[in-house]
């Protein structure tokens, strides 16, 4: 395993852990709060996750693709796992851009007293794609670990 693979696995693992922890542990608690507090909490998360994830997610994608491109033997188990990692991570980033980010932008501007059906619909969309992304990020992490061990 080289330094690029180590750095990629660490960063992708961190992203996978943060996003899946948010989905499985934080957001189920938020949905039990009173409506105005849910909105306030979501806005607070935008100030933490919203600062670091726009950097770490694209960086992770670049790193995942880079280890595949840098692999001299692409027709191998390792190369195949790296290629699959690149594809599934790209799909997760695409869902982030097309589904999660618009809901995050709307959340940032949402009024705390407007707990309408539109708010609930947007949050359902966000939770669905957060779950999808979390699973894909964990899958990517696992594929990269297996790829590094199959050389």
- Structural class given helices, strands, pairing? mainly alpha
How large a portion of the residues is in β-strands, by DSSP E? Answer: under 5%
Please estimate the helix content: over 70%
What would the principal axes of the Cα set say about the shape?
Answer: elongated
Tell me the number of helical segments per DSSP (H or I, 4 or more residues long).
4
Order of helices and strands: HHHH
Look at the structure and give the mean pLDDT.
93
Sequence-ordered SSE layout with sheet pairings:
Layout: H1 3-30, H2 35-70, H3 77-109, H4 117-149
Helix pairs in contact: 1-2, 1-4, 2-3, 3-4
Describe, in plain words, how this protein is organized in 3D:
The protein is mainly alpha-helical. Helices cover 86% and strands 0% of the residues. It has helices at 3-30, 35-70, 77-109, 117-149. The radius of gyration is 17 Å and the shape is elongated. The protein starts with a helix and ends with a helix.
């Amino acid at each position: 395993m080289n330094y690029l693979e180590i750095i990629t696995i660490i960063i992708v693992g961190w992203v996978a852990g943060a996003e899946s922890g948010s989905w499985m542990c934080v957001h189920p608690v938020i949905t039990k709060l009173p409506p105005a507090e849910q909105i306030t909490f979501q806005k607070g998360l935008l100030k933490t996750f919203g600062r670091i994830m726009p950097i770490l997610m694209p960086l992770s994608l670049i790193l995942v693709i880079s280890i595949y491109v840098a692999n001299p033997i692409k027709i191998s188990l390792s190369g195949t796992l790296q290629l699959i990692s690149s594809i599934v991570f790209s799909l997760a980033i695409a869902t982030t851009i097309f589904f999660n980010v618009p809901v995050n932008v709307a959340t940032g501007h949402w009024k705390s007293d407007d707990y309408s059906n539109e708010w609930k619909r947007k949050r359902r969309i966000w939770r669905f794609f957060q779950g999808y992304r979390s699973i894909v990020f964990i899958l990517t992490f696992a594929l990269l670990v297996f790829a590094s061990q199959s050389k």
